[in-house]
Amino acid sequence: MKNQDLLENQGKRGVYLGIGSNIGNRFRNIDLAKYYLNTNNIKILKTSSYYESLSWPNSNYPKFINIVLKVFTNLEPIELLKICRSIEILLGRKKNPKNYPRECDIDIIDFNNLICENEIILPHKSMHQRNFVLIPLFEINKNWTHPVSKISIKKMIFSLSTKDIRSIKQI
Questions:
Q1: Coil, strand, or helix at residue 100?
Q2: 3-state secondary structure of 91
Q3: Taking residues 120-124, what's their average pLDDT?
Q4: Which of 91, 81, 85 shows the shortest CA–CA distance to 27?
Q5: What is the pTM of this model?
Q6: What is the pLDDT of residues 71-96, one digit of tens each?
Q7: How many angstroms from the chain centroid is the CA of residue 119?
Q8: Letter string b/e over residues 27-62, b meaning 16 or more CB atoms within 10 A of that residue's CB
Q9: What CATH number corresponds to the domain at position 62?
Q10: Cβ(103)–Cβ(21) under 8 Å?
Q11: What's the structural domain count of the chain?
Q12: Residues 102, 22 contacting (CB under 8 angstroms)
């Protein structure tokens, strides 16, 4: 039995998280976010490479560094979201307008293929339009399929504009 199977049998769920930072020491912010996830019983199984992309939707803001993680947790989605928000605040995130530059942003991209539109929207509602989510996600799971649309990650990437594909670079 694989490690993943063992974890799933213990009630742990496979989750994909996106982490980004576009102010301060961007790499350090992401590394600290990973550290704090680990200290909250969130086991990191896979980590994508770092990717640099234009700030979205305002490309005049500083560029982002982004990664995608595959993690296992026994937390419920709302509990995981609260931990992610507390880590963002711990790393310096302030209450600012939506999509404003920030030290740390942690998004739940997919929570064990759960489809939810209550207190939390799963999978992430805009992930299929974002190069900084799709490309790192593809790197760690080339077979991932969107739980709602049933569209493969590869098709979602090919649906991005050429500008979106060319404007992101692996670091």
A1: coil
A2: coil
A3: 93
A4: 91
A5: 0.91
A6: 999 999 999 999 999 999 999 998 88
A7: 18
A8: eebbebbbebbeebebeeeebbebbbbbbbeeeebe
A9: 3.30.70.560
A10: yes
A11: 1
A12: yes
